[in-house]
Amino acid sequence: MTDMTEKTHASLRIPVQDTGEEQARPRRQREWRPAGFAILAVMLLAAGALRTVAANIIQNRSVALTTQQNAKQYVDVVLPKQTEGSNTTLLPGTLRGFVESPIYARATGYLLHWYVDIGAHVRQGQLLAELDTPEIDQELAQAVAQRDQMQASLGLAKTSYERWQQLRQRDAVSQQELDERRSTYNQDVANLAAAEANVARLRQLESFKRIVAPFTGVITQRNVDVGDLIDAGSGASRALFALAQADTLRVYVQIPQAYAQNVSMGEDVIVTQAELPGQQFHGKITHVSGAIDVSTRSLEIEVTLPNPDGRLRPGAYVQVAVPSPAQAQLTVPGNALLFRAEGPRLAVVDNHGVVHLRPVTIAQDLGLSLEIASGIQPTDRIIINPSDSIEDGDHVVVAQTNAQTREGGRPGQGPERQQALKDKGAS
C-alpha cells in the first residue's frame, strides 16, 4: 500500500514528505560539513604559497650564483723567460750624411737653367743652377746711377769748399759761410759712401743668381725645374737642391737610461743593415749628449761611420750594437705592459688570485717582447692582455694551463668558467 502511494505521488510529481530515517540523522554531522570544505581550501592555498616562496628562493639563489660566476675576471698568465745576457745591445739608428744641407735661393727670380740632378757628385763651388733676376738687375742699374750722381755732387761740393777756404783767408767771406760749405761737402761724402754700399749690396745679391755647391757631396734632391718662380730665403720657399756628404756618415742612437752609464766617447760599435746581410760596418762613438732626455728617458749618442765605397746611404735604418754589461734579462710579451701615469706596470697574480701592479724598468724593446731590467721575478705570473680597468688588489681567476687546454677546453676557459657559461645558458 505504501509503495503504491509513493509511485502514485511520483507519477503525479507530488513531493514525498521526509520519513523518520532522514529526520533521524545527527544534527552535528550536518553542521561540520561546510567547515571541512573551508579548512581544505585554506590548506591548499597555504601549500601553493609555500611552493611559490620556495621557487622564488631557488631562483634568487640561481641568479646570484650565475651573477657571481659572470662577475669573475678570467685572465691568462705567462712566466717570464730568462735570456742569456750579452756584452752588446742592439739599438735602432738612422744614417745621416756627415754634412747635410738644403740649398735655398738668396735672390728672387725665375729658374733659367739647372745643371745637376739627383745622384750627381759635385765639388765645392760647382755651378748647380742659374736664375733670371730682372728686378735685381734694374735695381743695380738704378743704384749705380744714383752713385754717379752722388759722386758728381761731391766733386762740386769739394771745389766750392776749397774756394771758400781761400776766400776766408783773405777775409772775403764769413766763417759761417765757410762752415756751411764744409757741412755740404761732408754730407756729400756720406751720401756717396751710402750709394757705394747700396751698389755693393745689389751686386752681391745679383751674384746669388748663380747657385753653387757649398761643399763636396752628392745631390739627394732636386725640387725645381726651368721656369719656376724662386723666392728668396728659407721661410715659406722650397729648397732648390739637397746636398749630402756621404763618404763619412753620422749615426744618431737613443740609448735607454738603463744603459746610459755603459757608453763613453771613443768606443767602437758595429753597425748592420738588414738589406746587407752578413756585412758589418765599424764606427766609433764621437759625441755623447750630456743629459738624459726627459720625454724619452734616453741618452743620445753620435757615431761616426766611414763610408768610402758608398755602400751605405744617408737616411737608411740601421742597427747599432753598443756596449752593455753582460747580464741575464727577463723577457715578457709586449702585450703584457700597462701604461699608467706613474710609469710602465706589469700585472702579477699571486697564489690567492690577487692582482699586484708592479713598476718595472724596461731594458730593451724588442717589438713583440720586452726585456725587463727590474721589477719582477722569474716565478711571477704575468697577466697578458690585461684590461685597462684592472687595478691593484683586484681578484681574478687564472685560466687553465696548456695541458688542460689539450684535454678539451678552449684556451682561456677553465672548468669554473665553463660551468659558469653553462649555468648562464641554462638560465
Keywords:
alpha+beta, six-stranded antiparallel β-barrel, 7 helices, disordered C terminus
Brief sketch in words of this structure:
The chain has 427 residues and is an alpha+beta fold. The chain is built from seven helices and 22 strands. Strands 1, 16, 17, 18, 21 and 22 form a six-stranded mixed beta sheet that branches.
- Relative helix content: 25-40%
Structural class: alpha+beta
Strand content: 25-35%
Strands, total number: 22
Which word captures the global form? elongated
Tally of separate helices:
7
Report the order of strands and helices: HHHEEEEEEHHEEEEEEEEEEEEEEEEHH
Largest sheet: 6 strands, mixed
C-alpha Rg (nearest Å): 51 Å
Terminus-to-terminus distance: 77 Å
Low-pLDDT residue spans: 19-24, 401-427
Mean pLDDT: 81
Question: Can you walk through the features of this model?
Answer:
With 427 residues, the protein is an alpha+beta fold. 34% of the residues lie in helices and 31% in strands. It contains seven helices and 22 strands. The strands form four sheets. Strands 1, 16, 17, 18, 21 and 22 form a six-stranded mixed beta sheet that branches. A six-stranded antiparallel barrel has the order 3-10-13-12-11-14. A hairpin with a 3-residue loop joins strand 19 and strand 20. The chain is elongated and about 165 Å long. It starts with a helix and ends with a helix. 18% of the residues are buried. The C terminus is likely disordered.
